[in-house]
Amino acid sequence: MIEISVCIGSSCHIKGSYKVIKSLQELIARYSMDEQVDLKASFCLGHCADGVVIKVGDRYINSVNPQNVESFFRTFILESE
Questions:
Q1: Strands 2-7 and 54-56: what pairing?
Q2: Which candidate, 1, 14, 30, 53, has a CA 20 to 30 Å from the CA of 68?
Q3: Would the pTM of this model clear 0.85, i.e. be above it?
Q4: Contacts of 74 (CB under 8 A, 6+ apart)
Q5: Which residues of 48-62 are buried (b: 16+ CB within 10 A; e: fewer)?
Q6: What is the tens place of the pLDDT at every residue in 27-70?
Q7: What are phi and psi of 40, to 5 degrees?
Q8: Can you say whether the dihedral through the CA atoms of 28, 18, 76, 39 is positive or negative?
């Protein structure tokens, strides 16, 4: 199971974290990965200046936004399987 945590703290919220979550939900459904991916919202992940921050396993990915979320998904989720 791949665990994805998306920061929804104040800074990341302002930078579009809810749009990122919605896009990730759509991508997970598109690739039929409901059983392989556990998507969660998380309060501050401690990298406020670099938001939107996503944690995949033990790795932090910074500066994810609605425009690059699909690229993030391909690189860190699809290619990591």
A1: antiparallel
A2: 1
A3: yes
A4: none
A5: eebbbbbbbeeeebe
A6: 999 999 999 999 999 998 888 888 899 999 999 999 999 999 99
A7: -135, 150
A8: negative
